[in-house]
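[Automated response] Your request has been received and processed.

Submitted sequence:
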Amino acid sequence: MTDARPAQGQIPDKPALEGLEEKWDAAWSGRGTYLFDRARATEVGRQGVYSVDTPPPTASGSLHIGHVFSFTHTDLKVRYERMRGKAVFYPMGWDDNGLPTERRVQNYYGVRCDPSLPYDADFTPPFEGGDNKSSRAADQVPISRRNFIELCEKLTVEDEKHFEALFRQLGLSVDWTQTYRTISDDTIRTSQLAFLRNLQRGEAYQDLAPTMWDIDFRTAIAQAELEEREQPAAFHRVAFHRTDGAGDVHIETTRPELLPACVALVAHPDDERYQPLFGTTVRTPLFDVEVPVLAHPLAQPDKGSGIAMICTFGDVTDIIWWRELNLPNRTILGLDGRVIADAPDAITTDAGKAAYAELAGKTVFSAKKRVVELLQDSGELVGDPKPFTHVVKFYEKGDRPMEIVSTRQWYIRNGARDEALRDKLIALGKDMSWHPDFMRVRYENWTNGLTGDWLVSRQRFFGVPIPVWYALDENGERDYDRVLTPDHASLPIDPSTDVPAGYTADQRGVPGGFEGENDIFDTWATSSLTPQLAGGWERDPELWNLVAPFDLRPQGQDIIRTWLFSTMLRSALEDDRAPWTDAAISGFIVDPDRKKMSKSKGNVVTPADILSQHGSDAVRYWAASSRLGTDAAFDPQNPTQVKIGRRLAIKVLNAAKFVLSFPVPEGAEVTHALDASMLATLHGVVREATKAFDNYDHARALEVTESFFWTFCDDYLELVKERAYNQTDAGQASAALALRLAMSTLLRLLAPVLAFAAEEAWSWFNDGSVHTADWPVAPDEEWGDPAVLTAVSTALIGIRRAKTEAKASQKTPVASLTIRAEDHTIANLRLAEGDLRAVGRIETLELLDGWSELVIDSVELAPQEV
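Generated structure:
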């Protein structure tokens, strides 16, 4: 506990929450309240630092109430650690690059990127302020890649300004001098350097392989970016012809358009129906290609006819079969999602070529329709298609189902095919502390369920360039065995404009020369390095050693598989350790019907209006009331919890003003049993709140603090106010000092939640900020017995109830009243008898012991004056 101090600030006549956000944000910025004190951090060392790997929100849209929810959770812990004396490193990042930014820029400015066009230094976009909805590419003005990137950078900078303003309004205690963008020169250098070191160690590689492909965004998609959606489909029963002439084999497929890409039929090895066919061949309908009949345990006997066709590639299972059964690749879909012009070499008959020609250039939908018509005409479609619905994989931001095409891409090994690496990632996850702990299982399930290495290249424009070139052979073709890499000191580089060592610019694109890589990194390949980006890895060694490994990774549960896993992977590969000691996982925000809020469902709530209408402290209270990992309901039409938080914040201001109205005499000491009891009770709250915050349980810390605060206001403050006013009372100094000490402690306990109200009230009687004040610590030796306050509060409630039952005002004097209770309760009541008489306006109070419970009886109200 700190000593009471004289009043420092002007207490307003009518304290109010309005205007506190602007007032205190300006004050905190001007004073540098939340700046990372590097000098002190250097002095105290890594153990005296608390560092946060803050989630960088995507700067390509708008913040939603979920951001407010989860970022407040982080801020609660950060403010607590700062008050505990830690030098807090709390940066903010902005996730600028990637597909969402490109899509937003296309619609906002009415443009699209065409890398073949030259740069136009005087380009002006056709308009500004698009609605961020899908628009036709034909209506967008094509511009060069450099012009497009300039517009991306311009718009993200503007978005970031709005984001920062809202986060400041929310009261996040971020050090705004410690910010980074995922597309700056420093970021590009860090991301390229990490990749080159992966490449040197053999952890990064390039391969021509089946790739999940989004035909709208025209880019490869990683496993972690996929989601499943229900889609209508139909089973088509198709006849394959046995080569030995012994009849037909019927398969059922949802993808008849992939018949020209068929490379085999497959059934389960234990399926007696098809065991005689294993090792034989059949010919495909329409295209007359001979394919083998094979066995594989992934085939499902109870699905369709029990035998399936393997195509390159219809789904992920096709890839597994293709790889494990060593089958040929007959890909027929191009990067635009249309059937390519050239038929697979295996189609040799005139009829087969003619059938393929009917499909060339068609979309998947049109090709499917035409194949079904051809099968009906040939009699190889058995019966009518049977409609049903099933789940189909989509890119999480895409509008059409994923296709699988064969492309050359860059990968980073992630443990999917490396048991030792996978075991290391699992072990590092077990060594961390997870809040709540069950979230660790989601990480382990994802890690154990990986089916392929991490695809990190993207065929897009706004992102970190992959820093390699390729030597060209005498025919001008890329020699993929001669990948050229830059010297680390030359980073950052753009291989589309920079020249590799040993070559000149005029050798670009000519036989015997070189060609730059056009692909960029997947946005997660950069975001996986947020600790390195924020902490100065390979840029500021002193800072890196002060903050890494970080103390906290806060994030949402839906990106454990992407952001958390990928960051863990990069740290394991580079430093052989976890990047943080603790992970705090927030739950989802759900609407009143308990449905997760999402843009696609149209139930997202933007936070600006809520903050302005109810005040930031009220919204912070709502967020703080939910434990980590727990979903929280939010009804913008009736935000009950927000209203409760606003009531609490207003009560804090009014209670502080009331407490500060009682003068504390020089040399005052706590001498009264009730005052000591109140402080002893408060010390217990301090211990429990401290323990809760240490365990990342901010909701419990708020719960115990708030409960005591209302007891303090409703009971204790009412009990002692007469004594605290009366300067002739021997107990006045004790009451006034106890009130002042309690208010000082309560403001510090509530400061992480009610950041603005606590700071305002604190300023009325303290110098400096409550957010840099010492967190309260309970004394080793207790000052009093909490049972006294408990007994008196219980009696006060009984007295109030008796007056209510008598239909009398609480201000009605009581001529006489008797309280019966247990011996120790009566003894405690005698210690505060004067305060109890005063608050109840009791003339004669009789206290009788020897009873098993506290009872108020023999209540005689004083005559009422007319």
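Summary generated for your ticket: DSSP finds 25 helices and 30 strands in the chain. The two ends are 49 Å apart (CA to CA).
If you did not submit this request, please reply to this message.
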